[in-house]
Each structure stands twice: as structure tokens, then as C-alpha cells.
From TrEMBL:
<dbReference type="GO" id="GO:0070967">
    <property type="term" value="F:coenzyme F420 binding"/>
</dbReference>
<keyword id="KW-0560">Oxidoreductase</keyword>
<dbReference type="InterPro" id="IPR011576">
    <property type="entry name" value="Pyridox_Oxase_N"/>
</dbReference>
<protein>
    <submittedName>
        <fullName>Heme iron utilization protein</fullName>
    </submittedName>
</protein>
<dbReference type="GO" id="GO:0016627">
    <property type="term" value="F:oxidoreductase activity, acting on the CH-CH group of donors"/>
</dbReference>
<dbReference type="Pfam" id="PF01243">
    <property type="entry name" value="PNPOx_N"/>
</dbReference>
<dbReference type="InterPro" id="IPR012349">
    <property type="entry name" value="Split_barrel_FMN-bd"/>
</dbReference>
<dbReference type="InterPro" id="IPR052019">
    <property type="entry name" value="F420H2_bilvrd_red/Heme_oxyg"/>
</dbReference>
<feature type="domain" description="Pyridoxamine 5'-phosphate oxidase N-terminal">
    <location>
        <begin position="7"/>
        <end position="131"/>
    </location>
</feature>
<dbReference type="GO" id="GO:0005829">
    <property type="term" value="C:cytosol"/>
</dbReference>
Amino acid sequence: MEAKEIRQAISDYLKNHRKMTLATVTLDGRPLAHTVEYVSDDGPVLYFATRKTTRKAQNIMKNENVSLAVDEDYDDWMKIQGVQAEGRATILSQEKDIKYARELFLKKFPFVAEFAPDPDMIFVKIEPVAGFFLDNTQGFAHRDEVKF
């Protein structure tokens, strides 16, 4: 696949899924994986919400480098598809950015509107720097890579 096609495949896959495994780096340098519900728009940028006291938020405050995986539980290994990415995580602080992330969440997860306001809730933006589209329908362990 060409770079443009890989970017589109990644964006489409992310838009049609909602759960990722996010890896952050702990304060003492160890990797830590987190399961997170996320939203995306028409590109590879992802947003998620969490409390600022969580380990993932604390880790991101100290080290913006993250990696992630989005996939499904496939019974047939030859049908496996998924996305892996390396990126930078930013805690949103501008009201317009927070509003945008909130709107994406309400669009994908309308029930979130019923949640009580939480002053400790923050939104995090992940901007990929490299992405990988896994597609075993093209052959076992097939993977296309792209830089963002």
C-alpha cells in the first residue's frame, strides 16, 4: 500500500473501533498498559478522557511518549486486522480543544451526557508519529508502516 492508503486504512479502522490498549512509561521507566475507550475524527488523532489522578495521566504528565494498539479478538488468525501506533500524548488545556474532544465523545458515546460533572476529568489527545496497519488478510503477519 502507498502511504496515503495506509493512513486512510488506519484512520478508518480507528474510527470504527472504540477501545485501545495504551502504553505509557511509569515514573521509574517501566512500561504500563491501560485499556481506554477513545474517540477519533477523520484522521489518526485520538482522544480519551480520564481523571488527572490516574496512573496514565500522571505518567503522561512526566513523559508524553506513548504507544497504542487497537484490534479485536479474532478467532481466525488469517482475518486479523489492527492498528499499532507510536505517538505523543498531550493533556488538553485550551477550552476550545476540550470542547471539541467532548463533542466527539458525545457523538460516539451519547450516554456520557448523563454523567455527573467531574472536576478531576481531563481529556488527552494522542498524535501519532508512526503507525502500523496489521492485515493478515494480505498474508500472515502482514504489516504496513507509515510516518505521520
